[in-house]
Amino acid sequence: MEMFTVWWEYGFMRNAFFAILIITPLFALLGTMIVNNKMAFFSDALGHSALTGIAVGVVLGVSDTSLSMVIFAVIFALLLNKISRRSASSTDTIISVFSSCSIAVGLAILSKGGNFGKYSSLLVGDILSITGKEIFYLVLIFAATLCFWLLAFNKLNAISLNKTLAKSRGIRINLIENLFAVFLALIVMLSIKWVGILIINALLILPAASSRNIAENMREYHFFSVVFSMFSGMLGLIISYFTNVATGPMIVILASVIYFCTYFYGKKLD
Amino acid sequence: MRKIIKPCGLHCIKVKDLGVVIGGQVILKDINLHIHCGTLTAIIGKNGAGKSTLIKAMLNDISHTGEIEFKDRENGHMQKLRIGYVPQNLNIEKHTPVSVYDMIASYQSNCPVFVRKNRRLYEQIRESLCVFEAETLIDKQVCNLSGGELQRVLLSMAVMDEPNLLLLDEPVSGIDQNGMELFYKRIEYLKEHFDLAVILISHDLGYVKKYADHVVLLDERILAQGSAGEVYSSEAFRKTFAETEVQI
Known about the structure:
- The complex is a heterodimer.
- By secondary structure, chain A is mainly α.
- Helices cover 81% and strands 0% of the residues of chain A.
- The longest helix of chain A has 30 residues, at 132-161.
- Chain A is globular.
- Helix content of chain B is 31%, strand content 25%.
- Chain B is built from eight helices and nine strands.
């Protein structure tokens, strides 16, 4: 028994636990729409833009690069939305162009003078470094996102099914889509330090994708997505403590295992 | 859509000088239409003639010039036009966890569909699905419906708000011969029992002749309009459909 409670003695583990308790359901909720709208690439590009945001902060001499990172990500998300709405060519290509361009700029600036080592922790993330103040920010964004989701999910779903039909029902498509992008940007940026650029998208996509394998309606879809996300988050943290493996990757490994299980289970149901 | 009123024939919808330009290219110009409640207007024309654009312009989905008026003919009062729309298709893939209830509730209400079913809304949706004998489909996944089933569901949703005008965009794709006949029967039932006008984009000239009250031949502008007989015997009609073998 002691083996299971010993990690609770450490303040950093408790903080990490609370952070995961807050972040994972958010990822699960937003993930449902990302997967339904085929926006996996969009959220991936958003994660990568963190590097550029920090680089911009460094160039401008901002003391708190987290701030420049968040602001840049919000602008980047709105810009991507606007361009993919306007352009006739495939969204995939446009997002890819913007994403690679922004990563390149970010890497170029941050690696100038051989200093990139300072920022490489951003790639993998470290959930154990989270502080109480940062958890407070997470609680705020959690409440805001939950409100947004309760008020706007129906509209997002309507837009996802057919834009013209949604518009004919008086839904303000651009506003809702932009709000969604902004929330996505905020959540990704607030959690990227602990989750890491390389795997943040996996946490957004995997729970919802697993849930989609077995769910038949929106209630099941959200329920399983949240359960899978929180389960792999909690278990991943505890296992990583005992095996001395980075927490983020451990969570993603568990989420992937769940995905494959639901995939085969869903196949059997068909 | 419970109450069943005989169409009064006193409401009319006027489309005045409607035009659409996209990227410097004229898609539609000088569109003038006069539509009465209780009638079925069919829009025909070759591919790329601007049929879908006309529907989208009427829905205000794309910017256009000209205006759309909705008037009570007796006192000339302007009213707000409620438009029901049945889209060509939905953006939905296999295994998408959206049930018929989820879809209709998303468009009809603000009660979040991911929390739990709203009993009252559920009943309301089931009732409106009854109009097209689709009430058993309410808990089915939208992506698993057949073409005919999906169409019945979309029609039920379109008439839920008691619209004055129903716009149907090529709804007959993916439906067999028997289903087509049924579809046109349903439209006929709608226009006869509810106080609404129907505009339908169609590719099937045979059914148009059989069911439409008014036919509009479109190619950038209106080439001919009138009864099916009048339009089908016009020079413009012969030119438009010269290559296609049409059995009328």
